[in-house]
Structure formats: C-alpha cells, structure tokens
Amino acid sequence: MCWSGRAVCVSKIILIGSPNSGKSLLFNRLTGLSHKVANFPGITVDVGSGELQGLPGKRLVDFPGTYSLQAISAEEEVAVGYFEDALTDPEVEQVLCLIDATRLEKSLYFTLQIIRDCERHGKPVIVLANMIDILDKHGLELDVEGLAKALHTTVLPISGRTGKGVDTLISLLAQPAAAEREPRKHLIDTADAILRGEAHALAHRYGPKGDILVRTQTRLDSFFLHSLTGGVSFFAIMYLLFQSIFTWSAPAMDAVETALAWTADRVVPMLGNTVVADFTADALFSGIGAFLVFVPQIFVLTFIIGLLEDSGYMARAALICHKPLRFFGLTGKSFIPLLSGTACAIPAIYAARAIDSPRKRLLTYMAIPLMPCSARLPVYTLLIAAFIPAQTSMGGLLGWQGLAMFGIYFFGMFCGLLITGIVSRAAEDHYTDLPFVLELPPYRMPGLIPILRNSVNRAKHFVTKAGKIIFTVTVVIWVLGYFPNYGADLGESWLGYLGHIVEPVFAPMGLDWRYGVAIFTSFAAREVFVGTLGTIFGIEGADENMIPLVEHIQASDLALGSGLALLVFFAIALQCVSTVAILAKESASRSLTMKMFVGYFLLAYVAAVLVYQVTGWVVG
C-alpha cells in the first residue's frame, strides 16, 4: 500500500508463533514497542503492529500465540482467524514463523502447518529459531543448515533476549528478494497427521542432542511442584508479592507526596486569593494528587507479577492451583486470568479465552470482577494506612499493613471462588469439558528491561486511562462543593445537598454524606473514590497547606468498623463501567452481566453492613 504524496509504500510482515516461544519479546526488540511478555497462553489476545526499526514502510504485525492451526480454545480461534485473513491480504509480503529451539518438536508441527498454508497462498516464510542463546549457554547445537534444507526455507538462529541474529534478520527483510521469491511447494497437499510425524523426525535429526535442559527443569519442578515444598513456596511467593506492595513502594510514594506538596506550596500562592487558586489547591493537588501518590504501588505490583511470568513460575502456579480450583468449578487455567485480574479485570477477561471449556470460562468471568485489581489498590492503601498501624518487624519483612493487604486481597479471591463454587453446583453442566492440558515452559532468568518497561507502561496506562475520568469527576465534585457559597460551608453547597440525599443509604455502614458521595462517584471507576475524598477534604481545608488524605480521614473520627466495612464493600462491589462493557461483549450475555453488577452490589452492601455492626459489637 502506497500513501499518496509519498514515495514509501507500506507492507506488512507477519510474526506468528506458539505461546512461550519468545514472540512478544522479539516483537518489542524489532519495533521498539512494549508488548507484554509472559510464559503462558492468554496474554496476547489481540494483534499488535509496529514499524520495523530501520525499515521505514514495513510494519511488523504480531499475531496471538497458538499451538496449532486446529483451534481448540477461543484464544486460538482468534489467532487462526487473523492468520487466515492475513494469507489473503495482498499487503502481506512475508511471514516470520518463530520456533523455540529448545523445544523443537513442539514448535515444528506448527511451523510445518504455517509453511504448508503459506505455500497455498504464495507467501514466503522465514523460520526464526529463537532461544539460541540458551543452547549456546549449555553447549548444545541446532543443525540450522540441515533444518533449512529439510524445510525448503530460510532458518535463522536468533535470540529475542540478547539480540543475536536481529541485525541479520533486518538485513534479510530489507532485501527486495525476500518479498519477491516464490515459496517452494513441497508441503502444499500434506495432511496434518503426516506433518506431525515429520515434525518428530526433523526434531530428532536436526535438534540439539542431550537432556541437560530437561534435567534442569525436572530438578526445579521437583521442588516447586512438590506436594509440600510446592505449596509452601506458592504461599510464600504470594505473600511476598503483597508485602512488597508496601515495602518497596513506600519511598517512591513519599517522594511523590513530597513533590506534590512542594509544588503546591509554590504554585498556589502565585495565583492569589482567586477561584483559580482554590481550584488548583483543592481540586488538582488535593484531588488528583491524592490519586497519583498510589501510582508507585501499581508499578511494583506489575513488576513482581512480570518477574513471576517471565521466569516460568506462573504456569507452575496454575498447575498447583488446578486441584483446589476444581473444587470451585474452575480449572487450573482459570488461575492465570484470575491473577491477571489483580492488575486489571479487562485483560483478565480477554485472557479467559484460553480456557477450553465454555462453562468454566463463564465461571471464570464471574470470579474475575472480585479479584483485587489495581484500581482497588489506591482505595485499599488509603483505608489500610488510615486504620492499620504501620508497625513492622524482621527488617520490614513482616508488617501489619502488609498483612492487612494480603488479607483483603485473598478475601476478594475467596469471595470469587465461593460464588463460582455455589453456581457450579446449583446449575447443571451442559458442556463436555476438555481434559486439563497445560504447557510448562522452561525456567528462565527474567528479562528485567522488558519487565521494567512494561511496568512503567502499565503505571502510565493506569494514570492516563483513569486520569480523564478522575479529572472530570474531580472538577464536577469541586464545582458542586465550591458553589454557591464559594467554599464557605461545604455542608451548604450543592455537593452537601447531594450527599445528604444519599447519606441514608450508607448510614448503616457508619458513613456520613462525604463517603456516600465518594462511593457514588466511584462507580465510574473505583480509584475515583480517592480523588473524590481528596477533593472533598481539600475544599474543607482550602485555607491551609495540603495535608495528607490519610490524616484527614483519621481526623474525621471515622470508626474502625466503617473503615473495615469500606474495605469489604470495595472488595465485592462491581464498580467499573469498562469491565461491565467488556464482560457483556466477551460473555455474549448482557443479562448475565447485569445480574452480576446488581448482585455484587447487593452482596457488598449487606456484607459491609454486617462487618460494621459486628465490629461495633466486638470493639464496644
């Protein structure tokens, strides 16, 4: 495709491969973009595209990973559908098929299918033997020349992690001959059953000799998958994940808070005693600023999960969880979407496409909104900091706040599992389930740079995605609270009138009108709760310097039972418009989505009221 008025024509190069082959990492290196890297299916569920570095006019298209062109899961159907469309696209000039050089037989069956279908449509194929750095490290060899002759196509050894072979690939793609040569026709009429046998023979003949990689993986699996050490290590890793949210992010949070306070002290006085000054101090620094303080925790959470994914441990965790999850009507493959939901429910819902069983996929959809996503994290952090003592021991390894965060996270997870367990037993199963099959990728040292880049992008995406909503809600809240008396009396403002209307609804939880307004606005997005409270308390103290929101809440004499009730309410209630929209689309059932939305709100409300009443009775 040539753009009018330009001499550069845009052509497409397809990158396709199986999950765990390092495809996303290579795509990032070739394009400079930042697609998520993970060692299990269900992460890349959409097509990514980026211009090849050094090759203007050539776009690399990253397809979802799949094990075969015979689709089983919903995710594989997406990948196969995209690939079939690409074969008939005249703009596609080249197909890059990525294989895992350390697991040649698994990769070659899919590769032979790709070559065969490309031959039928006249698309040339270059086979990229990835993970070549791992073979070099262990002194193993891949017969690249022999494999290339057997496949009748170019085979290029490459490493997406170290960059080995990338320059050679770029040079090859820059040559016009790479797009013009006609593919050989040696597999065009070959059946899948024959291809499977040929893949086995090719791997045996040209693949690396020796079992050092298998022995290393087996030795580690004997520990991480052991009935005793595996379970202990799983809970230890999960606990450290949540503990690190406070311990690692605390310095960055303090730095953000200090920077905001320093900026406010210098900017606000320059504006004088005006409405603009009040808006800047109360809406921007107190409202939006209160939300920005929690961004470092989003970064830390994403970074730790990235380490677990890239190391290969996440698939082991899914295997460990399969048996207990079966009790709740789910599968081990549900663990990956559920844990992804601790970052954001939307990609978690997409990740559920990898679940073969339609019934278990729907049950997973029901559990995902109860996973403690990153949008809940600012709310949890705020309430825990306000009500739980910041006492630590063992050098910060053990602390009450980290333990509380650990507890509220697992409370949400438990509620999700409890609901799916009840539903799975209450309704008959009209679907025939497929057997549980999960690939265990090799253990690898995580690539820190891609993980850091992804963590930065996740935090940035979280701010930009929520920022528009938060800014809009903050401005509306500030206007309602500032007028008609210019902030003289918050209770007599428009916001005060609205708050008193909704106050009776939340009074059984021990909450006044201010918290009722914050809960009401949080249905646009959970994290808006923090910004709304920041705006409300900022207006209340507009003539003072910015005071941390935690101190405002503590000064408001909010009861411990009310704080715990808020934690429980936010752990259960479905308060995300985007999640509701994606659920309706992926489940193809608006009725189910609306039942979940209403049902989770009522359940959250009843549970929060009970927690408040019981806490008040116990504390006295």
Describe the protein in words.
The protein is α/β, with parallel strands linked by helices and 620 residues long. Among the domains are: 11-210, 3-Layer(aba) Sandwich (Rossmann fold); 219-247 and 294-431 and 558-620, no CATH class. Helix content is 61%, strand content 6%. It has 27 helices and eight strands. It has helices spanning 23-31, 74-87, 104-121, 132-137, 144-151, 166-174, 176-180, 192-206, 212-224, 229-247, 250-267, 275-292, 295-311, 313-327, 335-340, 345-351, 358-367, 377-387, 400-426, 448-482, 494-506, 513-521, 528-540, 549-555, 560-572, 577-587, 590-619, and strands at residues 11-17, 48-51, 58-62, 92-100, 125-130, 154-157, 392-393, 398-399. A six-stranded mixed β-sheet has the order 2-3-1-4-5-6, sandwiched between helices. Strand 2 and strand 3 form a beta hairpin.
Q: Pairing-aware structural class of the strands and helices?
A: alpha/beta
The DSSP helix count reads 27
Helix percentage:
55-70%
Overall shape: it is elongated
Report the span from N to C terminus. 74 Å
Strand content: 5-15%
Number of beta-strand segments: 8
Largest sheet: 6 strands, mixed
